[in-house]
Every structure is written in structure tokens, then in C-alpha cells.
Amino acid sequence: MTTQREIGGVVVEHELASVVRRLVERFPHRSEAEIRDVVMAVYHRISAGATVRAHLLPLTLNRSTAELMKKAGDD
Question: How many Cβ atoms are within 10 Å of 59's Cβ, its own excluded?
């Protein structure tokens, strides 16, 4: 039997993949692997201390975007 936790994990993985796809479109000069690494690092960093999880995915998108934009300025 599938538990809610397993379903939630699949949903989160799917949503994170969607975040990666959106950022690949926005930052075509970056590799998908690099963007995935940024997204996963940001998600794990903010989810580690989160007590409310409802906004983790939008926060992940926003912070990942900011991090990638900063890296673009460093290049």
C-alpha cells in the first residue's frame, strides 16, 4: 500500500523537476545538471529547517533563480 509520505515524495520530486525545467528555459546557457544541482541544494537547505512546507517549492524557484542570476554576473 502506498503511504501519504511516499505520494508526497513523488509529488515533490515531480515539482522539483518542473522547477528545473522552468529554469533551464530561463537560463539556456547553463547546463541542466548545474541547474538541477542548484535547485536541489536550495530545496534541501530551506526544507531542513522548515516547519511550514506549503511554500517550499515557490521559495525554491525564487532562491534558485536568484542564485543562478548571481552566478551569471560572476561569469
Answer: 15
DSSP per-residue letters across 29-61: TS-HHHHHHHHHHHHHHHHHT-S--TTHHHHHH
**19 in Cβ contact with 64 (< 8 Å):** yes
Rounded Cα distance, 23 and 25, in Å: 5
d(CA 70, CA 46): 18
pTM score, whole prediction: 0.83
Q: What is the DSSP letter of 28?
A: T
Close Cβ partners of 71 (under 8 Å, ≥ 6 residues apart): 30
Question: Given this model, what pLDDT does residue 72 score?
Answer: 79
d(CA 27, CA 68): 8
